[in-house]
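SEQUENCE-TO-STRUCTURE ENTRY
===========================

Backbone structure tokens: a row of integers, each naming the local backbone shape at its residue.

Task: work out the structure tokens from the sequence, keeping to the layout shown below.
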Amino acid sequence: MTGFETEHQIIDTKTKIMKANKINIIKLGFVILSLLGCLNWIKAQELETSVEKAPRKYVKNTFESVWLIDNQTVMVPYKGTFEFDIAHRFGTVNNGFEDLYGLFAPSNIRFGVSYAPIQNLNVGCGLTKERMILDGSIKYAILKQTQDSWTFPVSISYYGNMSYDLKEDPDKSLYKYETDRLRFFNQLIIARKITDKLSLQVAPSLSHQNFVNGYYFQVNDSTKEIRNEMNHNHFAIAFSGRYKLTESIAVMVNYDQPITKHTINNPNPNLSFGFEFNTSGHSFQIFAGNYAYLNPQRNNIFNKNNPIDYKDVNNNTVKGGNFLIGFNITRLWN
């Protein structure tokens, strides 16, 4: 082997080594870029996960109380809150000064208590003077309005009530079976806090009564049949609003519209309005309205007080303006 050939072999070897090093450097660059890409992807996933797990901020104090006159609001007290309620309704104002616009007339009153054992759930019970109605209730917050209104633009709660009539009926002339004393109420409450001062809600409801009276109907000359005076189920809808005048004073308006048409004894709508005064642990509401029974299913099914004059089926004018003054007092312990 000559010196010239050896020199060329050395040059070829160096050239091959340099080419191999370049290829390895390029491969290493691809590996590094791939690793950087993976790291960026992992960081993006972690950031996305952290954003998804960030706690939602909910709108606070859509209403200040669980009550808005005769209807429940969408609000559910915080876990561990105990509540005591006093609801009072005087007589109607129609007699004027004779009974001091209903203040000296026979009145109705309800005492109630409730407790929130877990977050978003409230259970309660109460006793009403008229017919000694014992009731139990449950309310659950299904959804809550978020501060970023595109996530949850409204709050939604379910409210249910079951009542039992304790009035004595020794000869069973009114209730043949004990289950006839039961009535039920189911309501879906949908509310939105429009501004810091204005809150609105709409609440469709279904009331059910186990027992209804009947009457004889002449089918033909020889046949009579018993027909129900009312339906067992009654649909209605309530519209409510509250506007804050100051931090502790608000004005309230509420309207309840019956939907179901019965054979006879159709209930009248309810129009109510008044003021609310709040502290950290108290709520006091004073108002005028048409409901008197202090139980949602009885109010919706049997309300005989009407807000305005109207024509009956025989085109007779039925006098309206059957308003009564009432108040609600709520005390919270948390």
In short: Residues 67-333 form a domain with the Porin fold (CATH 2.40.160.40). The longest strand covers residues 182-193.
